[in-house]
Specification:
Largest sheet: 4 strands, antiparallel
Shape: globular
Order of helices and strands: HHEHEEEEHHEEHEEHH
Strand order of the largest sheet: 4-5-7-6
Structural class: alpha+beta
Distance between the termini: 67 Å
Length: about 350
């Protein structure tokens, strides 16, 4: 009896071009099933990410908990806040060891001959995003008063019960101010209580006098929890300020920030801030090689703004901010912009 003839077939999947074409067409069909709003937003983000009103969708594994900078301690909230608010200083994204760079400032603070006083100069033309808390709904320009208000609020024992140790013992008279707030209770007028170490020169220039010649004195001002907030936002929203962030960052809320759960994933919507006003910008050397390096390390995280990490230039811990910006200030990862 003759043995049956066995035909050997290739086990390689998608070995034929026709199968590849069918697979690609199937994926395209699946991709076309999304809702129109999502498709339009994604298309706008890719074609012109700088267009005003562009909505950026970000998917995260958990919902944000608090959008007040001094009261947020979770990664989901941090990913939103780092795009809505700005700090006086930031970290150069490419350089190691970590290096502080100005963000809301024109230049790095200048150390004075006494060794404990630093002079700061704010960038002119930086505006808060348009919001109902401002007169006429138009965001006003950032001034020194906003910086002092934010520092005092950070030190207020009734407002900040967790993170003040970051700045404790650093600024002359700030610890005493904190004790005053504890005695006077909630809702005090910060402008009526001076702090010896906060010296206003004009709307854009100020000095901070520290308690000693401390090489780590400036690092707290790069921490996200020390973002600059407007007094109007707190006065208008009160406790609900935690759900209505108002900052000078590249993205803003304007009442459309939404958190929706889709299969245990949170989807947030953040529109780009309106044009025609200066933004703080983002650090980067701007060179072609620098941009290539930024692309190579994109997603590794930003340095942790704590004293020990700053002192020893430690590796980035888990949970650090993962949304990077390149030399042109574009946002990357988590779906905000490409």
């Amino acid at each position: 009896m003759k043995a049956p003839k066995i035909t050997r077939r290739s086990c390689r999947p998608f070995a034929r071009p026709a199968v590849w074409a069918a697979a690609i067409l199937a994926l395209a069909a699946i991709g076309g099933c999304g809702d129109e709003v999502g498709e339009q937003a994604v298309s706008t983000s890719i074609d012109n990410p700088s267009a005003p009103g562009t909505v950026f969708y970000g998917l995260r594994s958990s919902a944000h908990k608090n959008l007040d900078p001094i009261k947020q301690f979770d990664q989901a909230s941090s990913e939103i806040l780092m795009n809505v608010y700005d700090t006086l200083l930031s970290y150069h994204y490419l350089k190691r060891p970590y290096e502080l760079v100005p963000l809301l400032l024109e230049e790095m603070p200048q150390k004075q001959p006494d060794g404990v006083t630093y002079s700061f100069t704010l960038k002119k033309g930086v505006h808060f995003s348009d919001d109902a808390c401002f007169e006429g709904g138009k965001g006003r320009e950032l001034t020194v008063d906003d910086v002092f208000y934010s520092i005092k609020r950070f030190a207020d024992a009734n407002e900040n019960v967790k993170s003040y140790p970051l700045l404790a013992g650093f600024v002359l008279g700030l610890d005493e101010f904190r004790e005053q707030t504890r005695e006077l209770g909630k809702g005090i007028d910060y402008a009526a209580h001076d702090v010896a170490g906060l010296i206003r020169i004009d709307d854009y220039r100020f000095q901070i006098r520290f308690t000693g010649d401390n090489p780590l004195a400036l690092y707290p001002f790069a921490a996200q929890i020390m973002s600059i907030v407007p007094k109007e936002g707190l006065d208008h929203y009160g406790e609900d300020f935690a759900n209505h962030p108002v900052g000078t960052g590249p993205l803003h809320d304007q009442g459309v920030l939404a958190a929706r759960h889709h299969r245990a994933r949170e989807e947030s919507e953040l529109p780009r801030s309106l044009p025609g006003r200066r933004r703080a910008g983002r650090p980067g050397d701007g060179s072609p090689s620098g941009c290539r390096r930024a692309a190579a390390v994109r997603g590794r995280g930003s340095p942790a703004p704590d004293r020990r990490a700053a002192a020893r230039h430690a590796a980035v811990p888990q949970g650090a901010d993962r949304l990077a910006r390149d030399g042109q200030g574009q946002l990357h990862q988590n779906g905000f912009s490409r």
